[in-house]
Amino acid sequence: MTAELLRKSSDALNGAVSGRWTRIGLALFAGVATALAHPPFGILPGLLGYPLLMLLAERSQSMRGAFWMGWLAGFGYFGAGCWWVAEAFLVNPDQAWMAPFAASLLPAGIGLFWGAAMALYRRFAPLGLVRVIVFAACFALLEWLRGHVLTGFPWNPAGASWAAGSAGSQFASVVGVYGLGFVTVAATASFGGLFGDGTRRARVGTALAGVGVLAALVIGGTIRLSGAEVRDTDTLIRIVQADIAQESKWTPEAYQSIINRYVALTGQLGAAQPDVIVWPEGALPASFNDVFAPASPDGPAIANAVQPGQTLLMGLARGEAVPDGRARYYNSLFSLADEGPAGLRVTAIYDKYRLVPFGEFLPLGDLMGAMGVRSLVHMPADFSPGPRPAPIDLPNAPRVQPLICYESLYPGFTPGGAGRPEWIVNVSNDAWFGATSGPIQHLNLASYRAIETGLPVVRATPTGVSAMIDPWGRVVEGARLDPGESGVIDMLLPRPVAVTPYGRFGDLFFWLMVLGGLALAAWTSVRKRWS
User: Which of 386, 253, 375, 416 is CA-nearest to residue 315?
Assistant: First the structure.
């Protein structure tokens, strides 16, 4: 009876995907469904979009057909997951006309990686349990490339479908978020094994293997979290969130109000005096050069709010002269120590390494400028990248790894061996994206850096979500300010845990899985050719 049911289900699926428009609709549905598995939606059954995509690629008549199935699914995935980018173009009314193009061109471009993954998978066209491993390997390889090609855009990798801090997310401490994506895609794609060639026993066995892997993820994560006891250091951190919308920053009156608000929150009395105060990226609509110019009243006002012995971490742009007489600009994080009558002293500067294309620099700048693109995106000059991320020392707190804005999306920027810091600070200007799903997803993605490294993460944004995240990726109770909230978070910094396997070995296990899957694909392809 079970065999007959499987046969009828397989025949029905084959009939469903035979029509062109039906295939297009199913591909888009597969992409949207997998996007809805991510926070803030958290609809984990949406992960079944992966086996649906695998079946659509298999039933394509050619690699070209599989490519288009993958591209359509990718378009649906990134359209549903990244629509919030359009919000940034609504801040400036002169750029509002670009919002629909941003919301459609971004998923159309990034969807090419999904298309390439399905074309590669269709090239091998394996059978049985092997197809699940090969599908996951092809998909994971292109996911990694998406996060690295042309500076990369690793937003919502498959592994981040699990809410950071949940049991399912903890395996990232071993294999990283890309490795967790491989395991997640392989496990869910195994349900596609119910449809296709092979005996009933083999097909059911493939699906049961996927159930076993998913169960192992959750059980293993539950065991890890059962021993997750947060122990605090003696360092008190104050995270400042002033809740200032991006569109409200650009008048002289607004500027003075912003200064006053940050100064008031910085100097606000608490149960104890904070050791470190963290302001977000883009807290002030001015450069460090302007704020701390000799004739500016802003520097002294900030210095008066910071008490002797405290350190202020603030994100500001800065400019510096270069030998050819021009200026070079950086998006930077400054460590400022209050030394009493001497005022604030810069103890360290971190310059952002991974810049945002079209936001912080214009790719092919001279060519794009000649075409008039620079004026369209209102970028008078590019930011310059700093050196590869490295920890900085603070005068009164443990060593810290700064990550500015979407640098927190990238695994591997924090050393896990010699020179390992004791915490990560991520300052970001999520105010560009308002009360959309973007800031919530950014929090989830940044929290994976805590799981991978075993380090606590401090996040500061102008409008939310600001939070203290423990080394297991969980927001510490009472240490979160959501979009629309203004205030401070005063919280003792959690201690790091022991170096994680991912912190020690990086993406080694991920590459072993991917290369193993591709080797398996090559072996089955050769065997098929010679049989």
Answer: 386
